Input
Amino acid sequence: MRVLHLNAGNLYGGIETLLVTLARERGLCRDLEPRFALFFEGRLARELRATGVPVSLLGPVRVRYPWKILAVRRRLAALLEEERPGVVITHGSWSHGIAAPVVRKSRVMLAHWAHAPPGGGYWLDRWARRTPPDVAIANSRFTAASLRRLFPRVQTAVVYAPVAALPKAMSHNREALRASLETAGDGVVIVIACRLERWKGHLLLLEALGRLRDDSRWIAWIAGGPQRRHEQVYLEEIRVAAARAGILSRLRFLGQRTDLPDVLAAADIHCQPNQGAEPFGLAFVEALYAGLPIVTTAIGAAPEIVDATCGVLVPVEATALATALARLIAEPGERLRLGASGKVRARALCDPAARLEELRDLLTLDRAPTQARRS
Output
């Protein structure tokens, strides 16, 4: 089955990581032939092309300009006529709102993959609701609970994102990377690797680390660079907060990295203490594959990934977070125990072969497009 994935393509985060994984690991399920259509050129398009999959550009569009929406919809209609996919999957409400009416008219099966809970009255979700898909996919049970309210008459299935195991890092890579980041070889590195979004909990982490500033054993790496103006503002706020807490010299700002597996392999603890609900958490799975113990907050989908075998769940509160970090900093044996279980946990949740087969089974059910059923 030829599967056409639709995504904006102008940012790079969890959705985009998933799409690149679908392209790279496509050989694990030859029943699905992935193709990709994006509205914007950018990092995602480049990384997809590097895997050898077809990537079509529909053209940049802003919803405030209706004539541009009409133009990209005409290009999408022509692409569907040319490619004749068996199913089109829209990723996120923005892509669904623009593309779903065209897909519905083409009588191609329409699937919607939700990567975050719908925002209730948010206009993008109201827009998406106008064209229900034939099947809805949620990236977690947490997301599925809300998605069923958006499309109440549509079958909703949970499919965790396929995440490939990270390549094994060599010990000299670890030492070299630490040296390049002015990090002592015996220091305990706490890493947070995610988009610079306020709800990801950078400031909560700094508040907790401020309470541990007298412990000289730790250093913190912040991986991820700003992609939009508000993220640049937030990054400056993080620097100011670190200075006020007296720990700025203990932080390393890594920016955007293309060597994340090496970064994780060179760290000792992964801590992303979300202050808002995480819809899934690819960063957690990647950290588990890297053998890192995880410390995070017990909200959103995090408890679906992190349990007592591989990490520590805490309330959204700096004292509890500081206590959990202090224990792992002081107990290397506990770090090793939790890290050793992480790879098994990650594979059970996100093994690419298993998740791609699950996706295939969902898409190949005897399910005719909605318009065809009504005609």
